[in-house]
Design brief:
5 helices; 15% strand; binds zinc ion
Length: 198
């Protein structure tokens, strides 16, 4: 990741990235966020969700039978602080290794890792056309950033039933209704503009 983005994220989430400036032997975080810029928001959102969960213990049921909730007692903690041990790409997916946390945090991390397979690691593009090489250097990218187009397959190519659904949508023709914002509809973005660009 670009050094300035790396520095920014470490400043934004100092508790999670507390090991960022440790010597190489002490923590893998010494090497920084070993991913490309396209996954910036994936990491930013993951860290935001983790830290706000830790910093905001849930309200507790009042003891007076009213059925109402009140803020938790002073000093209540949700779970142990999450500390990132290593952030990298492996087999085309995000890997976020950490200590601390609980089952909820594990769910957040699992979700981000799963989602990474649908987001170009180079530019952050996320759509039907993101995929990975079918051999050699496996990496999640859009078509534009594919390492080898000869063996590049989109995620849809790996999911024939979804490909059929998209084919049907395409056969129905472009969506006529103009969106109020004047932006492209999802359909136009996926099937219209993209083809012009490629
Ligand atoms: Zn890309």
């Amino acid at each position: 990741m670009h050094q300035l983005l790396d520095e920014y994220l470490c400043k934004k989430y100092p508790k999670i990235f507390v090991e960022r400036n440790m010597p190489p032997g002490a923590s893998c975080m010494h090497w920084g966020l070993a991913i490309n810029d396209g996954w910036y928001y994936l990491i930013d959102n993951l860290c935001h969700n983790i830290q706000s969960y830790i910093d905001n213990p849930p309200w507790v049921l009042k003891n007076d039978g009213s059925g109402l909730y009140e803020p938790p007692p002073e000093g209540t903690t949700t779970c142990e602080q999450v500390v990132a041990k290593q952030v990298k790409e492996k087999f085309s997916g995000l890997r976020f290794y950490y200590t601390g946390g609980d089952k909820y945090v594990k769910g957040l991390v699992d979700g981000a890792q799963r989602l990474s397979h649908y987001i170009c690691e180079d530019c952050g593009e996320m759509n039907w056309f993101v995929g990975r090489n079918d051999g050699g250097w496996i990496k999640t990218t859009c078509k534009k950033h594919a390492r080898d187009l000869n063996v590049f397959k989109t995620n849809v190519d790996y999911e024939p039933e979804l490909a059929e659904v998209l084919k049907k949508i395409k056969e129905e023709g472009p969506v006529k209704k103009k969106p109020l914002t004047g932006n492209l509809t999802l359909f136009e973005a996926m099937f219209g503009k993209y083809e012009e660009d490629s």
